[in-house]
């Protein structure tokens, strides 16, 4: 049972030592530290000597330094509890004291309730005892293993049993024998020689008309007592036996309680056989769906869950069903103002369960409604039925269920009038008393349910208007609604708590397959089973369809099913039974959509990239962003899309595959073609805007006008452009592939050209390589020869950065030959620059310097000072690598002047890095550090993580040379992380070796700061 907090703090000893503040669990540390808290909680408001804490923690055998460890635990606990003023751990003369309201500890609260029950009349006593028993869930002090903890567990188990027996006595006097019977039978099995339990069971059996069973239980108990203890049953049990034997009329249940009760329908279908996992969702339902109040609307106490009934909590023991003092909670976590005599009027119940995250408190008492939403086939009904069946005993006045056919192949949704007619029949209303008018039916239904503790499951709802008349009256019922639509009006108007259902995890998916096919088959065909889990993507209906087919064909290997799923995609999940066909189930969600919404859904299935942002979606569907937002909201409300942060919209892979099939089957080809043209042009022209912000000195090559209806995303500055590219770069690559597939060669080439600066900044080396491979193929179909030259040059550079030196120089020399043939001086200069870098990476610094000098000579003829500065820096860098530091310094200083004069921070940073290198190699380590720090600041301001990694790598060397090992270690670790993120494995390996060497160096004197 997870007990929340309405006031401030709640402590639990049953089920483990736990604490919550405002519904948030506190981290209480390791087991021994929690043991210290347990002792202090048991002795709440009393001073506990340190020696007693040591004894209870280690059982008289404390380890070395146990006392200092204890003081450390106390200090940490004081810090943990500092978040609330309601519990204070203080040092007192003679020990330590935990000061708090004892009603905020489940142990003390339960003892208080039991004491009050033993002084109360039967009606109040049964309620108080049930409140106490609700707090006793799980093993007390779970996880603690000291002798004191073990002894306390035994004592507390005895207290719990005594309370259970008191509860059974009182409940029997109240005539609740039928509800008690299962728990009494289980308790008798666990305590076969307990005569008080035997008497309670015999009385319950007798009052239930099972006198023969009661007499037989007595005979078995007597025989066991004689065999094991050598004694007969006590006088009380013998007398009860005689009274049952002679049919004593005084044994019948009290007349007031045994009077005929209303019809209690039991309409819940069985729990789904393949249901698995969903622990967080079950726990969430436990939190937001309360148990009925112990003191019902009319003071009833005869319909509550019997003591000893099976534990119907969700996974992890989460119950969340009742506040610790038993008062009713409405809307799940909140409850009506307190009416208990021990509490101030209106005060919150101590230890009341927490409010569900993100939901405001309700404004008044009402029926509790949980609205389970999600796509068709995601498992909403499975979840509702699994939870309902686990908790059916809680709703002892009955359970109603109806399939509202909101999304069904069989016809129109069920009307509220039809559903009400079925409910009134189930509640025992004669056909001639059922009103014809909908409002009158709803009023009668609310009257019949107002005072009852019932569960109503409204499955497969289409709209709020279909649900609202079916909401029961009063405050004691619970409603579960499942729908593919999100039903926001149900939340706004009726206080429903939404619970959105997502796909299963891989572990849950595997468990479902195992449940259907058996562990042996899944283990024997492990690779194929793993493929099925991956291909189904956690979609429960897809997994169920596949599992059912595989179970029906045990002679066929799972690998054949995998092959079919790969070959046919979502069509492989079709079936003649529409309820077992994923395409059919998804198609039902489209019926209530408008034609523009259905078209948008289909087009989103073929949009490039893993998801779609609002601006791209608007150009895709050819509508304004306001109109598109409304369409996307409708699709999200129908659970066909999921809105994610950043105003983006995503589909599950199988839903996307179905949407793509719809696009090809239902959307005319001209419409599809125009939509893809617009969205690809949206990506291209927005990327072009970004590229101009990154490097205005790169030759301007306009991609041509966009298609009609394209509205590129505005990018006012470089940070905005970088953020957009970071979010969209998977979509930009996908857009290029879409352009290639549709033979839009011009677009494919220009996408690569406009992404080059971004890939250089962020170090997306493999994406850069893929983009230029596609661009080179596109260039073969373009009339301008410079597109091929630039593609070869950039492809060579991409290979060089990834270590493909042979491919790099081959592509670059082909590019150079073409540039010379076409007498393009600018291209020749940039190709020589890339060849200089490529030869440096191949280890030939002499050739690298030759190409750098060619670059400088050519750029000096072009009147482009920024490119001349880049060439000067390149010559300086390669001269430095060859040991000609004077030449290097002169060229780099000249480059720095030009870069600063023309406000080019990227080039300035590169030159500062070169000067850092020169000063390091001339043993001017402080100057090297100075220049590297300046370069690093510029690269970071530009978002250039690729060169940031390089400069961090370089900076570590002069820091190490100065004896600043901690600083060197810090920058190399940061460089290592960036290299790994960028897939630069050789660089990462080199830095890892440097770090290892630094760690192996013997520690010396103090660092030079």
UniProtKB/TrEMBL annotation:
Domain of life: Bacteria
Biased composition, class Basic and acidic residues, residue ranges: 324-334
The TPR repeat ranges on this chain: 789-822
Annotated PROSITE patterns: OMPR_PHOB, TPR
GO terms assigned for molecular function: ADP binding; DNA binding
Compositional bias of kind Low complexity: 336-364
Residues of the DNA-binding region: 1-100
Disordered: region residues: 291-364
Pfam families tied to this protein: BTAD, TPR_12, Trans_reg_C
Protein keywords: DNA-binding, TPR repeat, Transcription, Transcription regulation
Coiled coil: none
Annotated ranges, domain OmpR/PhoB-type: 1-100
DNA-binding keyword on record: yes
SMART domains for this protein: BTAD, TPR, Trans_reg_C
GO biological process per UniProt: phosphorelay signal transduction system; regulation of DNA-templated transcription
InterPro entries noted in UniProt: AfsR-DnrI-RedD_regulator, BTAD, OmpR/PhoB-type_DNA-bd, P-loop_NTPase, Sig_transdc_resp-reg_C-effctor, TPR-like_helical_dom_sf, TPR_rpt, WH-like_DNA-bd_sf
Similarity field: Belongs to the AfsR/DnrI/RedD regulatory family.
Stated name of the protein: DNA-binding SARP family transcriptional activator
Organism the protein comes from: Saccharothrix australiensis
């Amino acid at each position: 049972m997870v007990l929340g907090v309405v006031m401030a703090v709640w402590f639990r000893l049953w089920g483990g030592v736990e604490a919550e503040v405002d519904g948030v669990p506190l981290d209480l540390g390791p087991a021994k530290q929690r043991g210290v808290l347990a002792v202090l909680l048991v002795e709440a408001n009393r001073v506990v000597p340190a020696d007693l804490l040591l004894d209870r923690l280690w059982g008289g055998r404390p380890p070395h330094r146990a006392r200092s460890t204890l003081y450390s635990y106390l200090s940490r606990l004081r810090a943990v509890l500092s978040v609330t003023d309601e519990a204070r751990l203080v040092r007192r003369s003679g020990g330590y004291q935990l000061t708090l309201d004892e009603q905020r500890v489940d142990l003390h609260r339960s003892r208080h309730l039991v004491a009050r029950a033993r002084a109360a009349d039967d009606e109040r006593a049964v309620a108080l005892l049930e409140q106490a028993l609700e707090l006793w869930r799980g093993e007390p002090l779970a996880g603690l293993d000291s002798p004191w903890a073990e002894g306390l567990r035994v004592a507390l188990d005895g207290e719990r049993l005594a309370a259970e027996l008191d509860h059974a006595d009182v409940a029997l006097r109240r005539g609740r024998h039928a509800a008690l019977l299962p728990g009494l039978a289980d308790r008798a099995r666990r305590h076969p020689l307990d005569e008080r339990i035997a008497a309670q069971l015999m009385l319950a059996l007798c009052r239930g008309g099972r006198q023969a069973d009661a007499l037989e239980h007595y005979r078995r108990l007597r025989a066991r007592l004689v065999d094991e203890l050598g004694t007969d049953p006590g006088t009380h049990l013998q007398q009860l036996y005689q009274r049952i034997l002679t049919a004593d009329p005084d044994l019948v249940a009290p007349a007031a309680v045994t009077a005929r009760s209303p019809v209690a329908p039991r309409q819940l279908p069985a729990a789904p056989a393949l249901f698995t996992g969903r622990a967080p969702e079950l726990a969430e339902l436990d939190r937001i769906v309360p148990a009925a109040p112990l003191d019902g609307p009319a003071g009833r106490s005869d319909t509550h869950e019997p003591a000893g009934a099976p534990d119907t909590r969700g996974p992890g023991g989460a119950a969340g069903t009742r506040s610790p003092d038993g008062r009713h909670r409405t809307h799940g976590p909140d409850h009506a103002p307190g009416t208990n005599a021990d509490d101030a009027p209106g005060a919150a119940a101590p230890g009341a369960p927490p409010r569900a995250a993100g939901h405001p408190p309700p404004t008044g008492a009402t029926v509790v409604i949980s609205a389970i939403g999600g796509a068709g086939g995601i498992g909403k009904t499975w979840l509702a039925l699994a939870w309902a069946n686990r908790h059916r005993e809680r709703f002892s006045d009955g359970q109603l269920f109806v399939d509202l056919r909101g999304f069904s192949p069989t016809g129109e949704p069920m009307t509220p009038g039809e559903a009400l007619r079925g409910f009134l029949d189930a509640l025992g209303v004669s056909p001639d008393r059922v009103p014809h008018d909908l409002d009158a039916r709803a009023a009668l239904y609310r009257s019949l349910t107002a005072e009852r503790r019932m569960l109503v499951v409204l499955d497969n709802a289409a709209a709020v208007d279909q649900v609202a008349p079916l909401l029961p009256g009063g405050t004691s019922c619970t409603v579960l609604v499942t729908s593919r639509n999100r039903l926001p009006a149900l939340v706004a108007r009726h206080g429903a708590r939404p619970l959105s259902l997502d796909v299963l995890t891989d572990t849950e998916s595997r468990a479902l397959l195992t449940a259907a096919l058996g562990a042996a088959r899944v283990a024997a065909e492990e690779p194929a089973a793993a493929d099925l889990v991956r291909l189904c993507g956690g979609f429960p209906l897809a997994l169920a369809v596949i599992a059912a087919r595989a179970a029906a064909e045990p002679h066929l290997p799972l690998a054949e099913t995998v092959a079919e799923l790969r070959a046919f995609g979502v069509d492989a999940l079709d079936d003649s039974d529409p309820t077992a066909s994923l395409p059919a189930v998804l198609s039902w969600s489209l019926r209530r959509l408008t034609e523009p919404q259905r078209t948008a859904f289909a087009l989103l299935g073929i949009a490039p990239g893993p998801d779609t942002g609002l601006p791209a979606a608007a150009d895709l569907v050819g509508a304004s962003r306001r109109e598109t937002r409304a369409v996307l909201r409708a699709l999200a409300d129908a659970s066909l899309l999921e809105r994610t942060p950043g105003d983006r919209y995503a589909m599950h892979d199988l839903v996307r595959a179905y949407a793509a099939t719809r696009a090809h089957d239902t959307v005319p080809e001209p419409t599809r073609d125009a939509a893809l043209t617009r969205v690809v042009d949206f990506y291209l022209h927005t990327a072009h805007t970004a590229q101009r912000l990154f490097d205005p000195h790169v030759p301007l090559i306009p991609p041509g006008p966009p298609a009609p209806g394209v509205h590129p995303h505005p990018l006012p500055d470089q940070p905005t452009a970088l953020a957009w590219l970071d979010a969209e770069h998977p979509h930009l690559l996908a857009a290029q592939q879409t352009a290639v597939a549709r033979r839009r060669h011009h677009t494919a080439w220009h996408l690569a050209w406009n992404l080059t600066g971004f890939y250089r900044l962020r170090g997306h080396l493999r994406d850069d390589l893929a983009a230029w491979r596609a661009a080179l193929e596109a260039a073969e179909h373009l009339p301008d020869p410079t597109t091929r030259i630039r593609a070869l040059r950039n492809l060579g550079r991409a290979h060089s950065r990834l270590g493909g030196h042979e491919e790099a120089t081959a592509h670059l020399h082909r590019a150079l030959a073409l540039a010379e043939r076409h007498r393009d001086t600018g291209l020749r200069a940039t190709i020589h620059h890339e060849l200089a870098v490529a030869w440096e990476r191949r280890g030939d610094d002499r050739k690298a310097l030759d190409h750098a000098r060619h670059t400088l000579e050519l750029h000096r003829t072009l009147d482009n000072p920024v490119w001349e500065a880049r060439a000067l820096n390149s010559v300086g860098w390669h001269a430095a690598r060859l040991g000609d530091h004077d030449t290097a310094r002169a060229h780099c200083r000249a480059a720095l002047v030009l870069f600063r004069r023309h406000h080019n921070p990227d080039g300035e940073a590169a030159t500062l890095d070169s000067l850092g290198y020169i000063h390091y190699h001339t043993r001017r380590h402080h100057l090297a550090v100075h220049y590297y720090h300046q370069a690093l600041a510029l690269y970071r301001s530009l978002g250039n993580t690729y060169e940031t990694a390089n400069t961090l790598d370089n900076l570590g060397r002069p820091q190490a040379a100065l004896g600043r090992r901690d600083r060197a270690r810090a920058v190399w670790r940061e460089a290592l992380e960036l290299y790994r993120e960028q897939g630069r494995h050789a660089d990462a390996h080199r830095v890892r070796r440097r770090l290892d060497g630094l760690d192996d160096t013997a520690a010396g004197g103090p660092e030079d700061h």
